[in-house]
Write a structure and sequence with these properties.
There is one protein chain. The protein has 374 residues and is α/β, with parallel strands linked by helices. It has two domains: 224 residues, Isopropylmalate Dehydrogenase (3-Layer(aba) Sandwich); 139 residues, 3-Layer(aba) Sandwich (Isopropylmalate Dehydrogenase), CATH 3.40.718.10. It has twelve helices and 14 strands. The strands form three sheets. Strands 2-1-3-12-11-4-5-10-8-9 form a ten-stranded mixed β-sheet, with helices on both faces. Helix 7 links the parallel strand 8 and strand 9. Helix 6 packs across helix 7, helix 8 runs parallel beside helix 9 and helix 11 crosses helix 12. The two termini are 20 Å apart. The relative contact order is 0.15. It binds 3-isopropylmalic acid and magnesium ion. The site of 3-isopropylmalic acid has 6 residues, from helix 4.
Length: 374
């Protein structure tokens, strides 16, 4: 296979973890006989320095001529948000990319690895039931891209509105993705809305139910978003595929992100209807540790696995990366964010040390099994 990838490392820890992810990509190319070429492009504060915009045209055009986008992270130090370089940096970069490439579905898999259970804030007996959830969040509708307006009402009171809009095609499109994903997993879709209040949610629920008729082998459950937030911390094992709108998805995926214990372990994919995708760790630029060489590269490395699976249909290769990561974590290799105080059996490593071990496992894998990790 011969593919071209746009690499947008961005700010903070982005470039450091991206470097490790690209080493893993090269190892896959060599091991499985593929050719992956890359072009780097600027985004976020790094782009602002040169172009005074967070998403330059040149970057968009490099993305347009690629088969997939590998994204690092964007954003500045917490105390420097009024600096024009950092102001609205995340929204300008990420939302514009979503709109430019019509990325309508965000995949956020959340899994708890038994060896890392100590990082999970929930009780052991809750976690032992197993946590393996695929969140599918709609990305182009809702109040994100509806009209935003701030105005003085007739009585002179400052007022603001953000319009929630969904049309049935947007809902049906992500519902289809959810049911197909559930067929390959444990056969259950939980559709999350606020249909007891919002018209947009009533339509959401009706359309998801219509789509469900085409998938009699999948169980559909509707859940109100407030209840879902509660269930995620009460018993996350009940969820297989969770499908929801943009705003609820933003909030619920952050709530669920604490289950594995570190944002450094999570990867996400944003896809459009043509199958073009952007792969990013949802963890942010972590400016406080940037340049120290201690960031956890696992999330960015798992983004490579998601890219191979979703953009290039290379399931065996994706699984090889995922099992190399899992073995490394099971052996006790830990970056600082996932270390356990007082634990003797762990090996504390830096960014490079973690990916070195993952690469060793990757090269050693002979017959990769796809059974456990799709
Ligand atoms: C996310 C982020 C973005 C969002 C922000 C940076 C605009 O929180 O990807 O979850 O709200 O979608
Ligand atoms: Mg978010």
């Amino acid at each position: 296979m011969d593919k071209h990838i746009a690499v947008l490392a961005g700010d903070g820890i982005g470039p450091e973890v991206m470097e490790q992810a690209l080493r893993v990509l090269s190892a896959i190319a060599e091991k499985f006989g593929h050719r992956f070429s890359t072009t780097t492009a600027l985004v976020g504060g790094a782009a602002y320095d040169k172009y005074e915009t967070h998403l330059p045209e040149e970057t968009k055009s490099i993305c347009r001529s690629s088969d997939a986008i590998l994204f690092g992270s964007v954003g500045g130090p917490v105390g420097d948000m009024n600096n024009p370089k950092w102001k609205n940096c995340e929204a300008n970069s990420i939302l514009s990319l979503r709109k430019t490439f019509s990325f309508n579905v965000n995949y956020r898999p959340v899994k708890v690895i038994p060896e890392l259970e100590y990082l999970c804030p929930l009780k052991k007996e809750v976690i032992e039931r197993g946590v393996d959830i695929l969140f599918l969040r709609e990305l182009l509708g809702d109040c994100y891209f509806g009209e935003h307006r701030t105005f003085n009402a007739e009585n002179g009171v400052r007022t603001a509105t953000d319009l929630i809009t969904y049309d049935e095609e947007q809902i049906a499109s992500i519902a289809e993705v959810a049911f197909r994903a559930a067929q390959k997993r444990r056969g259950k879709v939980t559709s999350v809305d606020k249909a007891n209040v919002l018209d947009a949610s009533k339509l959401w629920r009706a359309v998801v139910r219509e789509v469900a008729l085409g998938y009699p082998d999948v169980t559909l459950e509707d859940m109100l978003v407030d209840n879902c937030a509660m269930q995620i911390v009460r018993d996350p094992s009940q969820f297989d595929v969770v499908v929801t709108g943009n705003m609820f998805g933003d909030i619920l995926t952050d709530a669920a992100a604490v289950l594995p214990g570190s944002l450094g372990l999570l990867a996400s994919a944003s896809m459009n209807r043509e199958g073009f995708g952007l792969y990013e760790p949802p963890g942010g630029s972590a400016q406080d540790i940037a340049g120290t060489g201690t960031a956890n590269p696992v999330a960015q490395i798992l983004c490579v696995a998601l890219m191979l699976r979703h953009s290039f249909a290379l399931e065996t290769e994706a699984c090889a990366i995922e099992s190399a990561v899992e073995t490394t974590l099971k052996e006790g290799y830990r970056t600082r964010d996932i270390a356990r105080s007082g634990e003797d059996n762990q090996k504390i490593v830096d960014t490079r040390g973690m990916s070195e071990r993952i690469l060793e496992h990757l090269l050693a894998i002979t017959v990769p099994s796809t059974a456990a990790c799709s």
